[in-house]
Task: inverse folding
RNA sequence: GGCGACGUAGCCAAGUGGUAAGGCAGAGGUCUGCAAAACCUUUAGCAUGGGUUCGAUUCCCAUCGUCGCCUCCA
């Protein structure tokens, strides 16, 4: 079987071939840390976590680098508003984001470079582009000369001539061409800055990714990822920079995730329609967010609302239903059938994931497998056969980064009392005092505790 | 205005040139004291209009609609 990846560069699915056999270098654009991260940022991190986990499952050694943009206009602005150093702002939100990554069960990247830590390399990169004629200094700034790079527009499908720069904003008169973009910005008074051959200043947004990618992964990489809002201009400019610097193709595969939508529009700070990761996790388990993403294509927009969250939680519950233990029954004679279906489940799962990480399809196969397992249990499967299938389910779901163990919703204190109530209800039921036993069940339900009577007794779980 | 993506059942969402996975919700049933859970059965002709084809939901064109980008953005 062969993995296929949808490449934004060609707008097609292409067979996955790495630069080096068995190894994958992957660079994913991380957030600009000027404010609290929202679930859209989490989506991007989750999507590429799934990609990374799957590639590793398929035997690749993945070097995964994701950056933090820790110097830019918005960070500086925020710092001025709060009257603190811009590095303090950046550090605050980096720390927060790190914690989010842990909470969301996202595997740590191999490296988390920051722009401010790579300043000498960035300056070197800008100087290199100036030397090669791809950039020109102008009054303390340095601009990339877009017309000098023949491939400009190949990622986003644009032509320089077609683009009416200035259509929405005024063109900076210092640029030779309206599409030229800043590699280096001269510092205004009071702004954080670094010395450079062009005076004190700071890097433009795009150059840091080219430089950090090079510093961490080399001149060429296998996969470059990010949100599809970055295709233009950010990734287009990265290509222009990196390929001008090294004279070879930058990334083989460009992968872009779709945008998280809230109230019919892309979730964003400027529109104000966002849900922070913090507020999501206050109300929901982390796995629910991952489940939302798994249920659809990573490339499509994803609607975020109460309904889709609930849907994801029900889907999780459904997966978990397969993990219940065997029933005390006889007459089980289909162990071979269960094993056979386990093999098929895994094959289908892999085939779906090989096809551009088609998680929605893969989930479909896992739900089929859930049904298979539940059927086997109902038919009286023994614990050993069942456990084997369940282990496979956990394994496959683990490839997607899902943990099906039920999170501790509340402290253990309540549990003893719930057990006590169940014990009392058991007496009622033995006495056939149905009204009383139902009262206990209903009242507990109101307190978000669901009871289920089974042949082995009554079990309960948080709703 | 330019570029790009998308439009599949009540909802979410895969997929295919030869008559459509899965999940949720709904209906009926098994089980249960009753429920719940699980299991069984059941619910679509794929935006619209053309074209290519023996045959299209799947390919091409147009139209309409939604979204993204063209300014910072995951």
Result:
């Amino acid at each position: 079987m062969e993995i296929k990846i949808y490449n934004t560069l060609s707008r097609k699915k292409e067979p996955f071939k790495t630069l080096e056999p068995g190894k994958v270098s992957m660079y994913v654009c991380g957030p600009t840390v000027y404010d609290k991260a929202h679930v859209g940022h989490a989506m991007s991190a989750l999507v590429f976590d799934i990609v990374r986990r799957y590639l590793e499952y398929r035997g690749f050694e993945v070097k995964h680098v994701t950056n933090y943009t820790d110097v830019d206009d918005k960070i500086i602005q925020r710092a001025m508003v709060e009257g603190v150093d811009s590095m303090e702002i950046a550090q605050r939100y980096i720390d927060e984001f790190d914690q989010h990554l842990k909470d969301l069960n996202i595997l740590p990247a191999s490296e988390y470079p920051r722009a401010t830590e790579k300043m000498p390399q960035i300056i070197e990169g800008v100087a290199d582009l100036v030397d090669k004629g791809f950039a020109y200094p102008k009054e303390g700034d340095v601009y990339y000369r877009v017309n000098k790079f023949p491939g400009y527009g190949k990622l986003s499908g644009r032509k320089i001539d077609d683009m009416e720069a200035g259509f929405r904003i005024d063109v900076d008169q210092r640029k030779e061409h309206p599409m030229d973009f800043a590699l280096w910005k001269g510092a205004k008074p009071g702004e954080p800055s670094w010395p450079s051959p062009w005076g004190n200043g700071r890097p433009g947004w795009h150059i840091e990714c080219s430089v950090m990618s090079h510093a961490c992964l080399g001149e060429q990489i296998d996969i470059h990822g990010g949100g599809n809002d970055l295709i233009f201009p950010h990734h287009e400019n990265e290509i222009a920079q990196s390929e001008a610097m090294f004279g070879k193709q930058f990334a083989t595969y460009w992968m872009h995730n779709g945008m998280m939508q809230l109230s019919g529009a892309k979730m964003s700070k400027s529109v104000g329609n966002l849900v922070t990761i913090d507020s999501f996790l206050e109300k929901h388990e982390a796995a629910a967010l991952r489940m939302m993403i798994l249920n659809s294509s990573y490339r499509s927009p994803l609607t975020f609302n109460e309904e889709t969250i609930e849907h994801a939680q029900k889907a999780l519950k459904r997966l978990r239903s397969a993990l219940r233990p065997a029933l005390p029954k006889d007459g089980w004679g289909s162990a071979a059938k269960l094993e056979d279906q386990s093999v098929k489940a895994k094959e289908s799962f892999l085939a779906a994931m090989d096809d551009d990480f088609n998680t929605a399809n893969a989930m479909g196969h896992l739900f089929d497998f859930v049904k298979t397992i539940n059927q086997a249990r109902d038919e009286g499967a023994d614990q050993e056969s069942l456990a084997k299938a369940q282990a496979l389910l956990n394994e496959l779901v683990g490839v997607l980064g899902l943990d099906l163990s039920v999170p501790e919703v509340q402290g253990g204190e309540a549990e003893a009392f719930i057990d006590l109530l169940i014990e009392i209800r058991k007496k009622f039921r033995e006495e056939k005092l149905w009204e009383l036993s139902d009262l206990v069940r209903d009242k507990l339900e109101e307190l978000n505790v669901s009871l289920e009577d089974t042949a082995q007794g009554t079990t309960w779980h948080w709703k």
User: Anything to note?
Assistant: Residues 328 and 380 of chain A are 7 Å apart (CA to CA). Chain A has a mean pLDDT of 93. The two ends of chain A are 41 Å apart (CA to CA). The first helix of chain A runs from residue 39 to 57.
